[in-house]
Amino acid sequence: MEKSENQLLQALQDRITDLAVSMEKMKLAEYVQLLNKPWRLMYINFIAGLARGVGIAIGFTILGAVVLYFLRILVMLHLPLIGSFIAEIVKMVQLKIGP
Predict the structure, then answer these.
(1) What whole-number distance in Å separates Cα of residue 31 and Cα of residue 24?
(2) In sequence order, which residues have a C-beta less than 8 Å from that of residue 41 and are 6 or more positions away?
(3) Max CA distance (Å), the chain
(4) Which of 9, 21, 55, 77 lies 20 to 30 angstroms, CA to CA, from 70?
(5) What is the pLDDT of residues 32-85, one digit of tens each?
(6) How far, in Å, CA of 96 to CA of 98, rounded?
(7) Can you give the pLDDT at residue 1?
(8) What CA–CA distance (Å, rounded) separates 89 from 23?
């Protein structure tokens, strides 16, 4: 009987150790501490939002420039129907951007 109790206690101790390691990996204490400071949480989320916004703006600008570059190449190929349509799009974009 005592041997099975010792095995059960050892199994429970191992399980508690595994849970403690898992909680440490999840950084649960840091998350709870962050929830106790709502102004810090809002500050961190604000900075993260700014970073996402700047990243999206830069990425969209680069993507737009690449698309315009390829559209100009298509215009240079003098494709009958597509070339005139793309030329109009490029002209509109250049008018909006300026010289």
Answers:
(1) 11
(2) 34, 35
(3) 92
(4) 55
(5) 888 898 899 899 999 999 999 999 999 999 999 998 888 788 777 777 777 777
(6) 6
(7) 60
(8) 56
Q: Which two tokens stand for residue 94?
A: 């250049």
For the record, the structure tokens of 58 come out as 């830069």
Predicted TM-score (pTM) above 0.70: no
Angle between helices 28-35 and 2-26 (to 10 degrees): 60
Amino acid identity, position 78: H
| Cα dist from 37 to 4, 20, 40, whole Å | 46, 24, 6
Please tell me the total number of residues recorded for the chain in this structure.
Answer: 99
- What is the H or E stretch that residue 71 is in? helix 38-76
Beta strands in the chain (DSSP E): none
Burial class (CB in 10 A: 0-12, 13-18, 19+), 86: buried
Can you tell me the mean pLDDT for 1-23? 86
CA of 94: how far to CAs of 23, 50, 54, 87, in Å?
Answer: 56, 29, 23, 10
